[in-house]
Amino acid sequence: MTLRLNETAPDFTADSTEGEIRFHEWIGDGYAVIFSHPKDFTPVCTTELGAMAGLAGEFAKRDAKIIGVSVDPVEEHHKWKSDIATFTGNEVSYPMVGDPEMKIAKLYGMLPASEDRVEGRTPADNATVRTVFIVGPDKKVKLSMTYPMTTGRNFDEILRALDSIRLTAQHKVATPAGWQPGGEVILTPAVSDEEARDKFGGFEQRLPYIRTAKLPD
User: In the annotation, is 45 catalytic?
Assistant: First the structure.
């Protein structure tokens, strides 16, 4: 079954390159970004894990932890980390979870629950294990995005989405298409005109159902 937005992200305990992870406990009071990949030592995923390693500081600034998941054992992850650093110049410091029995992949709806063949699996067999999840401090799923194996993921977009998620959790606003931090926001119906004037110093009525404003610095 597909894991839907605002559902509780399934908890799990698993081995990782940083030791045992109890997922909900590990998240703590911040956000978590889970990104899965179908197989170690694959070209596109090598670039992705390196890209995430390079952005680790940006995620940390946003109180977000990074965790990778692969349908491979942890010992293979440790070997792969060397290739990732060689190719991308970035050392992987975040945990990479081993899921050789596909329990997490099934728990998160990335593989069918009926899938039971573990040995001899190819990247194509695990092609759907290509989802990014953002999980909030409340342990609810805030975002999920699934990419094909041939398309490298844009983690700058994940950062942008995380900025929006954090902002809209704090204020009764939404962000328009292509929004960037500091840009105009859309006021939700929960904000009265009076409140908008008080909190945002005014607003612009663009359409009968669209009011925009700038957040105060």
Answer: yes
